[in-house]
Write a structure and sequence with these properties.
Low-confidence stretches: 112-117
Distance between the termini: 43 Å
Largest sheet: 4 strands, antiparallel
Strand order of the largest sheet: 3-2-1-4
Mean pLDDT: 85
Order of helices and strands: EEEHHE
Strand content: 15-25%
Shape: elongated
Structural class: alpha+beta
């Protein structure tokens, strides 16, 4: 399965000199085989890790993966919010994956409901 990588400035008060980290989502096993899967919600499925000093400071490492809420809590250490530089779909070197990524969404999905006053 492919992963999603965000290049970020973690803005950690515990590591103020660390201005770059990759924030990586590692999906769980594919929910279906040989057909399109339903949308996978990276905030509730799979696990996350950071690279570099941010990984050490937060404890969300490639060896000790975190749930999304744990990662958000670890990045919220009193400093400014993290800054996202880029987003990419990536694939590690472990096993071959042939497929496509369709419908990558950031933030919440759009809705058709009318705003309330």
């Amino acid at each position: 399965m492919p992963n999603i990588r965000f290049e970020i400035n973690p803005n950690l008060t515990g590591a103020p000199a660390s201005t770059y980290s990759s924030m990586v989502w590692v999906p769980g096993p594919s929910p279906v085989v040989d057909r399109w899967s339903p949308y996978l919600d990276a905030t509730t499925t799979g696990r996350w890790f950071l690279t570099g000093t941010a990984a050490t400071v937060t404890g969300c490492t490639q060896v000790a993966l975190c749930m999304f809420q744990q990662l958000k809590t670890a990045l919220n250490d009193g400093g400014p919010q993290p800054t996202i530089y880029t987003a990419a779909v990536s694939k590690g070197r472990d096993s071959m994956w042939i497929g496509a990524v369709d419908g990558l969404r950031f933030n919440r999905p759009s809705t058709t409901s009318k705003p309330t006053a």
